[in-house]
Amino acid sequence: MATYDGPTELTTILPGAVFGPVLATSTIGSVGIVQRMLSGAMRGVPRIGLEIVDVRDLADIHIRAMTSPRAAGERFLATGEFTWMLDMVHVLREELGEDGHRVSTRRIPDLAVRLAARFRDPSLRDITPALGRRNRHSTAKAHRLLEWQPRPARETVIDCARGLLAHGAV
Q: Which of 53, 115, 132, 160 could be 80's S-S partner, Cβ–Cβ 3.0 to 4.6 Å?
Protein backbone atom coordinates (compact mmCIF):
# COMPACT_ATOMS: atom_id res chain seq x y z
CA MET A 1 0.00 0.00 0.00
CA ALA A 2 2.95 2.31 0.59
CA THR A 3 3.60 2.40 -3.17
CA TYR A 4 -0.05 2.44 -4.27
CA ASP A 5 -1.17 5.87 -5.43
CA GLY A 6 -4.89 5.21 -6.06
CA PRO A 7 -7.92 5.66 -3.85
CA THR A 8 -8.63 3.11 -1.15
CA GLU A 9 -11.83 2.09 0.52
CA LEU A 10 -11.86 0.16 3.74
CA THR A 11 -14.82 -1.41 5.48
CA THR A 12 -14.47 -3.31 8.73
CA ILE A 13 -16.80 -5.95 10.10
CA LEU A 14 -16.68 -7.18 13.68
CA PRO A 15 -18.51 -10.47 14.21
CA GLY A 16 -19.99 -11.95 17.35
CA ALA A 17 -19.54 -15.62 18.27
CA VAL A 18 -19.44 -17.40 14.92
CA PHE A 19 -21.37 -20.67 14.67
CA GLY A 20 -23.24 -22.47 11.91
CA PRO A 21 -22.51 -25.29 9.48
CA VAL A 22 -18.92 -26.50 9.38
CA LEU A 23 -17.04 -27.31 6.18
CA ALA A 24 -14.12 -28.97 7.94
CA THR A 25 -13.11 -29.78 11.49
CA SER A 26 -9.39 -29.03 11.30
CA THR A 27 -9.88 -25.51 12.70
CA ILE A 28 -13.24 -24.97 14.32
CA GLY A 29 -12.66 -21.90 16.52
CA SER A 30 -15.73 -20.84 18.47
CA VAL A 31 -17.63 -23.87 17.17
CA GLY A 32 -15.56 -25.78 19.73
CA ILE A 33 -18.05 -24.60 22.35
CA VAL A 34 -20.85 -26.56 20.67
CA GLN A 35 -18.49 -29.50 20.11
CA ARG A 36 -17.66 -29.61 23.83
CA MET A 37 -21.35 -29.47 24.70
CA LEU A 38 -22.21 -32.34 22.33
CA SER A 39 -19.33 -34.56 23.44
CA GLY A 40 -20.13 -34.13 27.13
CA ALA A 41 -16.75 -32.53 27.77
CA MET A 42 -18.59 -29.46 29.08
CA ARG A 43 -20.01 -31.05 32.22
CA GLY A 44 -21.81 -27.92 33.29
CA VAL A 45 -22.88 -24.58 31.89
CA PRO A 46 -21.49 -21.27 33.16
CA ARG A 47 -23.74 -18.19 33.19
CA ILE A 48 -22.33 -16.78 29.96
CA GLY A 49 -24.16 -15.40 26.96
CA LEU A 50 -23.05 -14.88 23.39
CA GLU A 51 -24.17 -12.74 20.49
CA ILE A 52 -24.31 -15.53 17.95
CA VAL A 53 -23.85 -14.92 14.24
CA ASP A 54 -24.17 -17.62 11.61
CA VAL A 55 -21.13 -18.12 9.39
CA ARG A 56 -23.46 -17.87 6.37
CA ASP A 57 -24.71 -14.49 7.56
CA LEU A 58 -21.14 -13.37 8.18
CA ALA A 59 -20.25 -14.26 4.58
CA ASP A 60 -23.38 -12.43 3.44
CA ILE A 61 -22.48 -9.19 5.23
CA HIS A 62 -18.94 -9.33 3.79
CA ILE A 63 -20.32 -9.66 0.27
CA ARG A 64 -22.81 -6.85 0.88
CA ALA A 65 -20.01 -4.62 2.22
CA MET A 66 -17.77 -5.40 -0.78
CA THR A 67 -20.48 -4.62 -3.30
CA SER A 68 -22.18 -1.61 -1.72
CA PRO A 69 -20.69 1.85 -2.22
CA ARG A 70 -22.52 2.86 0.99
CA ALA A 71 -20.18 0.59 2.99
CA ALA A 72 -16.97 2.45 2.09
CA GLY A 73 -15.23 3.78 5.17
CA GLU A 74 -17.79 2.27 7.53
CA ARG A 75 -17.56 -0.15 10.44
CA PHE A 76 -20.26 -2.75 10.98
CA LEU A 77 -21.09 -5.07 13.83
CA ALA A 78 -22.13 -8.50 12.63
CA THR A 79 -23.69 -9.86 15.76
CA GLY A 80 -26.85 -11.83 16.04
CA GLU A 81 -29.25 -12.62 18.79
CA PHE A 82 -27.95 -12.71 22.37
CA THR A 83 -28.28 -16.22 23.76
CA TRP A 84 -27.32 -17.62 27.15
CA MET A 85 -25.30 -20.83 26.97
CA LEU A 86 -27.95 -22.49 29.12
CA ASP A 87 -30.51 -21.76 26.40
CA MET A 88 -28.11 -23.24 23.84
CA VAL A 89 -27.87 -26.53 25.72
CA HIS A 90 -31.64 -26.76 26.04
CA VAL A 91 -32.01 -26.22 22.28
CA LEU A 92 -29.45 -28.95 21.60
CA ARG A 93 -31.19 -31.39 23.95
CA GLU A 94 -34.64 -30.61 22.49
CA GLU A 95 -33.71 -30.72 18.81
CA LEU A 96 -31.09 -33.45 18.53
CA GLY A 97 -32.78 -36.34 20.29
CA GLU A 98 -30.30 -39.12 21.03
CA ASP A 99 -27.44 -37.08 19.52
CA GLY A 100 -27.93 -34.52 22.29
CA HIS A 101 -28.00 -36.94 25.21
CA ARG A 102 -24.50 -36.02 26.45
CA VAL A 103 -25.26 -32.28 26.56
CA SER A 104 -25.24 -31.22 30.21
CA THR A 105 -27.91 -28.84 31.47
CA ARG A 106 -26.29 -28.53 34.89
CA ARG A 107 -25.66 -24.90 35.83
CA ILE A 108 -22.29 -23.94 37.24
CA PRO A 109 -22.54 -21.14 39.82
CA ASP A 110 -20.43 -18.04 39.15
CA LEU A 111 -18.50 -18.58 42.39
CA ALA A 112 -17.54 -22.10 41.32
CA VAL A 113 -16.24 -20.81 37.97
CA ARG A 114 -14.22 -18.08 39.71
CA LEU A 115 -12.73 -20.52 42.22
CA ALA A 116 -11.86 -23.01 39.48
CA ALA A 117 -10.23 -20.22 37.44
CA ARG A 118 -8.12 -19.21 40.40
CA PHE A 119 -7.08 -22.58 41.78
CA ARG A 120 -7.71 -25.38 39.25
CA ASP A 121 -7.97 -24.18 35.66
CA PRO A 122 -6.28 -20.87 34.79
CA SER A 123 -7.76 -21.06 31.26
CA LEU A 124 -11.13 -20.12 32.81
CA ARG A 125 -9.78 -16.71 33.85
CA ASP A 126 -10.60 -15.30 30.43
CA ILE A 127 -14.31 -16.02 30.84
CA THR A 128 -14.85 -14.79 34.40
CA PRO A 129 -15.47 -11.14 33.38
CA ALA A 130 -18.31 -12.37 31.13
CA LEU A 131 -20.18 -14.21 33.89
CA GLY A 132 -23.75 -12.93 34.06
CA ARG A 133 -23.04 -10.17 31.55
CA ARG A 134 -25.71 -9.48 28.97
CA ASN A 135 -23.94 -7.74 26.11
CA ARG A 136 -26.12 -6.47 23.33
CA HIS A 137 -24.74 -4.45 20.48
CA SER A 138 -26.71 -2.73 17.78
CA THR A 139 -26.56 -3.90 14.19
CA ALA A 140 -28.90 -1.13 13.07
CA LYS A 141 -26.30 0.36 10.73
CA ALA A 142 -25.85 -2.98 8.94
CA HIS A 143 -29.61 -3.27 8.60
CA ARG A 144 -29.98 0.30 7.36
CA LEU A 145 -27.04 0.56 4.96
CA LEU A 146 -26.66 -3.04 3.80
CA GLU A 147 -30.14 -4.45 4.41
CA TRP A 148 -28.45 -7.24 6.39
CA GLN A 149 -30.46 -9.49 8.66
CA PRO A 150 -28.97 -12.42 10.62
CA ARG A 151 -30.92 -15.62 11.10
CA PRO A 152 -32.18 -16.77 14.54
CA ALA A 153 -29.58 -18.13 16.95
CA ARG A 154 -31.58 -21.33 17.48
CA GLU A 155 -31.26 -22.23 13.79
CA THR A 156 -27.56 -21.42 13.81
CA VAL A 157 -26.80 -23.55 16.88
CA ILE A 158 -28.73 -26.54 15.51
CA ASP A 159 -27.10 -26.30 12.08
CA CYS A 160 -23.71 -26.06 13.78
CA ALA A 161 -24.38 -29.17 15.86
CA ARG A 162 -25.66 -31.13 12.88
CA GLY A 163 -22.57 -30.17 10.90
CA LEU A 164 -20.26 -31.33 13.67
CA LEU A 165 -22.15 -34.61 13.94
CA ALA A 166 -22.07 -35.12 10.15
CA HIS A 167 -18.31 -34.60 10.12
CA GLY A 168 -17.80 -37.03 13.01
CA ALA A 169 -16.32 -34.29 15.17
CA VAL A 170 -18.22 -35.44 18.26
A: 53
